[in-house]
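Box 4.2: Ligand-aware structure prediction
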Amino acid sequence: MARIEIRDVSKLFGEVRAVEGVNLLSTEGEFLVLLGPSGCGKTTLLRMIAGIEEPTSGDIVIDGQVVTHLPPRVRNIAMVFQSYALYPHMTVYKNIAFPLRARGMGRATIKDKVEWAAGMFGIGHLLDRKPRALSGGERQRVALARAMVREPSVFLLDEPLSNLDAILRASAREELRQFQKRVAVTTVYVTHDQVEAMGLGDRIVVMSKGSIRQVGTPAEIYQWPADTFVATFVGSPPMNLMEQGDLLVGFRPETFLPAEFVEVRDGGVTYPFEVTYLEYLGAERLVYGNVGEKFQARHVVSRLPGSVDVSIEAGSTYSFAVSRRDLRYFDRASGLRTDKGLA
Ligand code: ATP
């Protein structure tokens, strides 16, 4: 277990500011997820923690030791990338044992460790197979076991599940989460998939254009986004945002419901909602439309759970509402969340 500290780190590639002024401190054994759109600098940041890339300025500190200019091999980290490569001519056992052999470890110790790592990922019965005789998910687990067998103090993962299909990804996510809690190795995980980030992270680090926008638990990020970027990047459909003077007022689609389902006495707001389009998704309905009057006509989305079984049709206008506690306000100029609207 180790604490990772990133001190005012920037990375320039020529004119490109890939990472800018990033500060971050993990706790021991924490699962941190770096989340952001393509090109926001997450992989570059991960590579600097690993030692594959050197910061232009700032420091990387692992367990109190400044490692900024140290090579990867002395950092006691393990990494798994999206394009993890298993050795095709070696069995699963030999693949997992490989990093230990390279260190000259004894045969009996290697056996113990391989069996431990394989057990951890539920692949103990596959040790004699070659990679081509494994499913994508099994290969993924072998790659994770091979990374873990050295008992690193930091585990770095760059979109390691993106080669898996949707169902497998959900179960791999669950496994990875349980495994990480069991071994309690401080983990940094890069993804652009917000569902993955919400499901895996103890805390999520939301990045945009090389900078951190917000660090928080999944609930903090979702409920109290620091700015309009986080509010609209996390959540699908994204938070509704409407102009109101100097402010933007925001509310999540699932809080925007037919007025009879909402407590508005606390200062909530009711809008006439002109429905233009509906999507039936089984467990819920997504209702698209416009709200007018107090605001200029604004396009908004409502997400109705199956329990709200009122009839709604495109072309009609309904009374919809949001309770006060679900309203968020943002400064229109800076995009930052503000308490002003709550007054
Ligand atoms: P993705 O999800 O697409 O992998 P990312 O958030 O991981 O994106 P990075 O790979 O860290 O983003 O890249 C951040 C920025 O730095 C991008 O604009 C990218 O083009 C640039 N960049 C990354 N590596 C290099 C390099 N070796 N040389 C020049 N520019 C680079």
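In the box above, the bound molecule is adenosine-5'-triphosphate. The chain has a mean pLDDT of 91.
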